[in-house]
Amino acid sequence: MRAMSYSTYGNAGVLRLVELPKPVPGPGQVLVRVMACSVNPIDWKRASGAYRLIMPAKFPAVPTYDVAGIVEQAGPGVQGFAPGARVHARIAEGTGAGAAEYAVVGVAEVTTMPEGLAFAEAAAMPLAGMTALQALRDLAGLTLEGSNQRVLVVGASGGVGHFGLQIARAAGATVVAVCSAKNADRVRRLGASAVVDYAKADAYAGLPPFDIVLDCVASDPGPFLPRLGPKGVYVTCLPGPATLLRSALNPFTRKQVKVVMLKSNAADLALLDGLYAAGKLQVVIDSRFPLEQLGAAWERSMSGRAVGKIVIDVG
After folding, report:
1. 69-124 pLDDT per residue, tens
2. What are the φ/ψ torsions at residue 84 (nearest 5 degrees)?
3. Residue 271 parent element (H or E)
4. Nearest 5°: CA angle at 139, between 136 and 144?
5. Are 120 and 182 in contact (CB under 8 A)?
6. Mapping DSSP to helix (H, G, I), strand (E, B) and coil, where does residue 30 land?
7. Which CATH class is domain 2-125+283-313?
8. pTM of whole model > 0.70?
9. Do domains 2-125+283-313 and 128-259 have the same CATH topology?
């Protein structure tokens, strides 16, 4: 099978198109013929070697965690995923292995796609969507129905941010989006009640305090703690020294600082699928690349200018 792979740490230039053996699903796994996968910053950050001490790559490494495709074969004892089923998942193991014509996925991570969801959108949803969901619901305490909370989403036009905005809005929260002026209309269409242009000196002037700040851009909670109410929660998907240090003080402070660490699971992905089926969740795609141009897709992600998700067409 065709796959993109790297055998040394480095930038996008280390990627190579290679031929690899078709994987075989084991117990509790399904083999998926990949139609699309998507790029997340963790892909190129791991390839750079930045996380080699805590998340070392096993070479040759096939990157990307998000996949959407068609079940080719179910492993021993697996039920509920017949060949031909349209599925998507966030692969939990290794460096992902989604940037290939076939990928093995654990049944605890994969779910059947709803009607009308295209493979590109389905591939864009898992990692970013579940990260936003778990940050808001599990760490920040967002009430998923009938919420009257005020939520600030920093980086609301990005991959995780545009999902977080819509999840909070679907829950009934009042959502204020932080993004550049050129993306203001887009985030309003996704449900933001107000937009903050981060480039303005007095960007937050006159805004009431927030119950939740979801920060998808920075790793320093300092500038946002004054924006929280007395029992507010700041949660980020980008851990850094300032965030980890401040989170250690949580037992002694009313305002909480937390870091989301994604846990792949089919139930949360199915919840996102339900929001999509109900017309409450859109998947914004920034750009699409063929498999052999994964390096160019990484460079687009590294630029920090992507609006929504970057998708790789495989099948």
Report:
1. 999 999 999 999 999 999 999 998 777 899 999 999 999 999 999 999 999 999 99
2. 100, -15
3. helix 266-277
4. 40
5. no
6. strand
7. alpha beta
8. yes
9. no
